[in-house]
Amino acid sequence: MTSNAPWPQHGPPGGNGQRPLLPQQTNPTWMGQVRPGHYLAAPANEAPAVNTVIPPGAAGGRTAGGVIGLLVGGVFLAFAGLFLVLPYLVGNTGVTGFVVGFIASLVPLGAVLLAVYVIDRWEPEPKRLLLFAFLWGAVVSISVTLILQPFFALAAAPPVGMDYRTFAVTVQAPVVEEFAKSLGLLLLLVLARKHFDGPVDGVVFAFTIAGGFAFTENILYFGRAIAESGTPGADLAVVFFLRGVMSPFAHAIFTGTTGLILGFAARRWHTGMSVAAFFVGLVPAMFLHSMWNSMGQDFLVQYILVQLPIFVLAVVAIVLLRVAENRLTRQRLKEYAAAGWFTPPEVKMLATVSGRRAAVRWARQFGRGPQMKSFLSAATELAFIRQRILSGRDVPAHQLDEHRQLAEIVARRDAVLR
């Protein structure tokens, strides 16, 4: 995109060639801490003063080619995996069981995807990456699981005193399934790192992968309740209540721990650290998965005393992550405001949910709702680009992204005001 905006000039004040001291408010939260040696002042805006975009009262990685290649590869793997997964499902459920299971599985899937939408509203991930994540979970990770399970059974034997069925449920399934799901997270971090900024992104991608995996697994369980029971209606109701009502987020929470740890690793990008974080993140995911599968006759007691508190803890953690992300966005935009790219009231609007909603409502009165949404999205992306710069990783590439995004901010502001 071309723009008349001047090329932003980076550099410390004073012209002595040294980086500026780390300002006191640079780290407003525990998330995305900036090291003093990585700090760079925001580029100054050499253009005339900006025309503020604010309604009355509202102020209260890799290149795109890597992302496209990732999506194309994911679609190809998913298509190939269907030739393994589909016969497996239909063979275990029958056609009727498969159809009923497919329809019933849409309900818990909808709950997980709704949670993804809510978590991801602040800085939405590209839809093509969410599509990759879903396809990986629903088809590719299932295929990987089906392929690896026989090899795992040959390589690992149950300990003395444990029957094979118990071993398969409490050890084999958690290890193989979490590895298969989390492999997609690792690919996203390595090949689409530009869009994998931190723990919130890790949770979003993990929930999407896990939602896809649970969707396919639920087809199997719901379909079997139809195909293998003398009272299919009653059995389906029981299985649906256990999996679709009591535990739609079970897989999401398991894999979410891996996504969380990989997200923290993304803050300090390094290939070796990412791989190490992948294996570290598998540990809590496998542990939680094994705990869930180990619940037996005292299922209800363990569900109330153990699983419900874990779910509540996961909700609290996600809320804290969102709050920290919002504060980080506000601080990074304040730094651009100090350099002349935004006005202080604009920053207050851009960094609050209520301010954003008021801005969109105001813009809709003049037929500029889509343009305002575009401006809000561009500002959020700019804040995250700055965070990438301050992380000290791939700084020149991200500074180029910053220049393009600042030009985009100018153009999108003009589109709202014209």
Structure, explained:
By secondary structure, the chain is mainly α. The protein has 2 domains: 64-294, no CATH class; 333-417, no CATH class. The protein is built from 12 helices and no strands. The protein has helices spanning 64-119, 127-155, 164-191, 199-227, 232-245, 250-267, 271-294, 299-338, 344-350, 353-364, 369-390, 395-417. Helix 1 (64-119) crosses helix 2, helix 1 (64-119) crosses helix 4 and helix 8 (299-338) packs across helix 11. The longest helix has 56 residues, at 64-119.
Tell me briefly what this model is.
This protein has 418 residues and is mainly α.
Spatial gap, N to C terminus: 19 Å
Rough outline:
elongated
**Can you summarize the main beta sheet?**
none
Number of strands: 0
Let me know the average pLDDT.
Answer: 86
Beta-strand portion reads: under 5%
Order of helices and strands: HHHHHHHHHHHH
Oligomeric organization of the protein chains: single chain
Radius of gyration: 24 Å
Low-confidence stretches: 1-19, 57-63
Query: Count of DSSP helices?
Result: 12
Structural class label = mainly alpha
Count of distinct structural domains: 2
Helicity range: over 70%
